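Onboarding guide, step 5: your first structure request.
Type a short instruction followed by the sequence, for example:

Predict the 3D structure of this protein.
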Amino acid sequence: MIEFDPQPTKCHFCGGDVIFTTNDKIYGKKYGNGMCYMCTKCKAYVGVHDNSKTALGILSNKEMKEWKIKCHDLFDAIWKQGKYNRNYLYKKLAGQMGIERSHCHFGHFDLEELKKAYQLIRRWNYDVQKQEK
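The system replies with C-alpha cells like these:
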C-alpha cells in the first residue's frame, strides 16, 4: 500500500520531483479542471479535485491507469443496475480487502491492490449475473 499524499512532492515510482501543473502536458489539451500532479522524471501523474490542490489519489503510471479503468468498469456496471448502492459495494470491497472503508478508493490503490480488487469485483459480477438467470 502506498500512502496517499494529498499534495505529493516525490514520486513513489522513481523518486523524481513531482510538480503541480496543467494536464495539457499529459493529454495535449486541458481536461476537467486542467490541473494535476506530475513526476518530472517518469511522468506518472494524478488529477486533482476541482478548485483545489488536493490529489484525487496516488500517482499512477500507464499500467495502473489501465487497471483503474478495468476496476471501475466492473464496479460501476454493478451499482448502476440499481440493486446495490455504491457505498454498500465500497464497504463490501473494503471488508474483503481487509482495509478501512475510508481507504477504499481505486485512486488510492497501488497495482497489486487494483489487481486484487478486480478479482474480487469480477466474482461479484459473476454472482450478480448468476442470480439474474
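Each response can be followed by summary notes, for example: The first helix runs from residue 24 to 27.
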